[in-house]
Amino acid sequence: MTIQSSINNKSKDYSTMYSNIEESNSGKSLSFDINGLNASIVNGLRRTILNDIVNLGFRYESGEKSIKVNKNTTGLHDEFISHRISLLPVTIDNWIQNPGEVDIDDYTFSLNVSQKSQHKKNGIVTTDDIVVKCNNNGNISEIDSKKCFCRNKKFNSPILITRFPNRDGSEQELDVEFTLTKGTHSNHACYSPTVYCVSFEKEENKTNEMIHEFKLESIGIWSPYKLVQQGILNLIYKCKNICNKIEDNIAYKYKGSYMAIDYRFNGESHTIGNIIQEWIYNSEFVEKKVNGKNLSHISYHEPHPLENHIIIRFVLNEDNAPMDFEDYKERTDELFIKYIKELEEYLMECLLQWKNITKSDSKHSLL
């Protein structure tokens, strides 16, 4: 498959975009090379996988609490137990396959154990001790907890929650109820599908800037293949959202000493901001001149790290820039939408190529 790419105005063969795909024995880790893709898009993919993929989890903070400790006479206080439970990676098969058709409120989880009940297990409490029930139109059925919580693939062992120490003369008990919530890692770490990992390697040979080595490890319900697919989808959704907001007339005049148009996008961050800036810059300033084909300036910035929005600024070339604000804005709107739609098409090709590769090998399960 070959398309015209505005990132460098050259035809690009997408059949070699992903190469050297290697999967770990556990099926949870994946590494591959991304060839010829701009670094801003690769970094955007990394950021959206870390922060924007919707996942299931348990919340324990006040206001959004889904964990209720009914009784706790163990050596650990309620907050510690709640925190342990909130970080359990939980799986609901039906939700993975059809998220929109599953009501997570139908599922309830309970952990009711004591020092006596765990005596034969040396006092150890694990995810195997959790009771999972599903309410299907009034019919309550119990689900095997082994299907809901990840197990160590090498030893087939459950996740440790706590342990009752051997104490004579005291009967320790733990009774907890919890329900599912949905969210992303940007809301809370309990929804994270993977983890941050930073390392440093000294390479002897000069690296090729257009080949990016991508590594990821899933710690939850998603396979690494599905994480990449969902990450690209997230970037496509962000492009659609940007286009809709441009059409909703969100632009306003820059208050500085020169004519410019600012676009404010609430709920967006560096993830899409840097991609848009690089995409438009590389499309406009092909010959690296002072002025581009239509623009003399394109940039984005995040005004404050605690304010969840970005501002993208356009400045038209003076020789063809309208003097009237409405005409100026209409011109920047047209350019902005044009480039975002091109970016969306480009990402769609990236997604289709990834799907083709994962389907080409039966071992590559998207779920």
TrEMBL record:
GO annotation, cellular component aspect: DNA-directed RNA polymerase complex
Protein name per its UniProtKB record: DNA-directed RNA polymerase RpoA/D/Rpb3-type domain-containing protein
Keyword Methyltransferase in record: no
InterPro entries (UniProt xref): DNA-dir_RNA_pol_RpoA/D/Rpb3, RBP11-like, RNApol_insert_sf, Rpo3/RPB3_RNA_Pol_subunit
Keyword set includes RNA-binding: no
SMART domains: RPOLD (SM00662)
Organism: viral metagenome
Coiled coil: none
GO biological process: DNA-templated transcription
Record keywords, A-Z: DNA-directed RNA polymerase, Transcription
A GO molecular function held by the record: protein dimerization activity
All copies of domain DNA-directed RNA polymerase RpoA/D/Rpb3-type, residue ranges: 29-245
SUPFAM superfamilies reported for this sequence: Insert subdomain of RNA polymerase alpha subunit, RBP11-like subunits of RNA polymerase
